[in-house]
Amino acid sequence: MKDFNVAILGCGTVGGGVAKIMLEMSEQLSGSSTRRIHLSKIVELSASEAVERFEIPAHIFCGGGKDLSKEEANRYIEEILQDKNIDLVVETIGGSNDFVENLAISVCHAGKHLVTANKALLAERGVSIFEAAKINKVSLGYEAAVCGAIPVIKTIKESFTGDQIESISGILNGTSNYILTMMQHEGMDFHEALKLAQENGYAEADPTLDIDGGDAAHKLILLIRLAFGVNITMEELARMGIQNIKKEDIEFASEINAKIKLICFAQKLDGKIYATVCPMMVKNSNFLAEVSGATNAVRFLNKYSGRHILIGAGAGSLETASSIVADIVFAARYADRALHEEKEKVAKLQFTDARHFKFPYIITFETEDIPGITGLTTTCIGKQKINIDTVSHNRHEKDRAIFSIVTMPCTLRQVEDAILEVKEKNPSVLLSEPKVIPILY
Amino acid sequence: MKDFNVAILGCGTVGGGVAKIMLEMSEQLSGSSTRRIHLSKIVELSASEAVERFEIPAHIFCGGGKDLSKEEANRYIEEILQDKNIDLVVETIGGSNDFVENLAISVCHAGKHLVTANKALLAERGVSIFEAAKINKVSLGYEAAVCGAIPVIKTIKESFTGDQIESISGILNGTSNYILTMMQHEGMDFHEALKLAQENGYAEADPTLDIDGGDAAHKLILLIRLAFGVNITMEELARMGIQNIKKEDIEFASEINAKIKLICFAQKLDGKIYATVCPMMVKNSNFLAEVSGATNAVRFLNKYSGRHILIGAGAGSLETASSIVADIVFAARYADRALHEEKEKVAKLQFTDARHFKFPYIITFETEDIPGITGLTTTCIGKQKINIDTVSHNRHEKDRAIFSIVTMPCTLRQVEDAILEVKEKNPSVLLSEPKVIPILY
After folding, report:
1. Which residues from chain B sit within 8 angstroms of residue A338, using beta carbons?
2. Does the pLDDT of residue A243 top 80, yes or no?
3. ipTM summary value
4. Is pLDDT at A339 greater than 80 in this prediction?
5. Same domain, A136 and A172
6. What is the predicted pLDDT for the residue at A47?
7. Among partner residues B32, B305, B338, which is closest to A313 by beta-carbon distance?
8. CB pair distance less than 8 Å for B330 and A161
9. Confidence (pTM)
10. What residues of chain B lie within 8 A of the CB of A290, using their CB?
11. Among the three residues A299, A334, A369, which one is the final residue of a domain in this structure?
12. What is the domain-level CATH number for residue B366?
């Protein structure tokens, strides 16, 4: 039996998990394809730490387990790229920069299969890397880049081939979901919940990418590319984070039997793709409302098979690593087959501004507490031909009132125009910018 | 581009759905692999009805769309088996009998790939068919046989290869789940709910296999075979249906924040596999409790990646057909690769009597309404070294009392021994056989 040799570049949280699983499961992995999957080499700057943390034999590390300088590491990486015996490279260095992009492309040009968990790299600089994989007829596995352990990439690639995906909605960022869950369950405000998330290791010291929807957007871009064949950039994707979610929003959500979640949403409609990342009020009848804590979930609506929901761990060392190992096995099994996956999609779809897409919305107004405000706001909304579903109980606090209006499906543009008219009619009445949150059924 | 020719045998609800999707998606399917997937031939006795129902061009049917006698159909099937141009056969005739078993084996011997939705056939007679596929190096796709549209087979085969499944629990039968949901939501008794299920097309005129757990057991046998490499028979698998679930059981479930579901359960423990199909009280904190109506769901606990849940349509014409088409695409993409899937598992696991497996149980007693009964039952339970969690409120009705006892994890054998002692101590006190239901957290 011929060996299928794997090199891991970067042996931190995820790369170390890959090495650990490959060593523990070596017997099963040998029997999982016609080639004997073998962990050959690891390159890691802090090798001595990785040896200890993941209990990996030092001899697997280039340099024998000693810490490496950047120059040494680069030299070992170059050796691996030249090594005809290495079949597949796992990139778990992370980061979206020229170095990692060039590395990924070089792996492909060297004729080696590439597996990565690097969502930022693929979302921001993926076009060149997918192209390099295609030209060199190597496989590019990135199951671990979207929702950690949840096999969402392979489900789209290999299981929805007898169907057409019509919409995707998902909770793709565990940190923000943990924060929202704490606000919901424990009555915390955003900053308390964020602090707790940091203390419990669910959020980084700099949590920007998690709470501003950037990380979730990276994943949604990859899902849209795969499901609809459309390449979009971070700039094109409408995005809002959870920084401005307040206790009262959580309460308004409860009033309409919903929970606030940071939702990644994409839908195909009339040959166009609409997509957004933003907090939504998810109705309790939708499974996504029940997904709490750091768990991730993706919901598909397909043309023939209807609704699918996948729930699982979105992050974690071994959780993410298990997806990488599955990609390695898949490559060992099938990668010398012609690569169908990079074919052009039959129907070219256009990506379109989410502001023209119809959602039901909940609009929360903070106003002066004077008579006539409900009349003013509902009149302006009505003039934009938006049907109103319900108007909430008005909360009076000192001189201000807070109330929310639930609309029937309409575009964000209509809502914005209605708010503009409220401002024009009575420039001083709004005490803050009204909050507009889509409702997901 | 070379054609990949498909023949469908049996064009009823599922086979017709396959033909419909293949025709509607023909362009996408052409681009989905290096071979052009093509629906070549259909054999169906009631061809004229199928032509109309699924809007399939008559010329695709052997016999040009005219109804066939059994002899004619068999002759056409024989032609297909001899036809070197046919690459894959879809068996959607159904039934677990000698004819279909021999047909499936003949397809493999003819060197053609086989795709089937026939869970009964594979669960009851699968050993010979899996063996025939292995010997002849053809692929055997059966995604549609377990949970219709949910890609559970491919998830185990291709996505959990970097992990080890430790337990499976699932709602694998939509009919029984629909009935239990109606009992739960609408307060119906079993017979009313069954009648409604039949009226709404969720249950057959003869619903035996759905309500006695037989259909669910077929699917669990296939999952156990795939996940743990153990072949078990219907006779070996402990099984109980939902026929005896009463309104009061639903109420007791609510009391402990749970819902009654027909659960397929299998767990690996100390190198042995424990499995059962039976109604369980599923705690509301478990996602399976929220799966209502005819929906199916499977929950995995894996060694490295933790909890996974897949939810989707468990039945339906196009839903099931979409899984079959995905299996066709997978075969067209990869099937000339060496077939890893039928390799022997590294660790041979033993299948063991579920009576020795520890669950928490809820035991419901219907007794004479006389003092001392709670003392008698709890004493007998304590003597079997079973720890009691809670004793429910005692419901008095005329001369009888109904109450339930929730235990800490113990074996079914311990429970049975406790009940035996109650009977011995006071032979007349029990008005019916106590109901013993596992609790799933």
Report:
1. 33-34
2. yes
3. 0.95
4. no
5. no
6. 98
7. B305
8. yes
9. 0.95
10. 287, 290
11. A334
12. 3.30.70.260
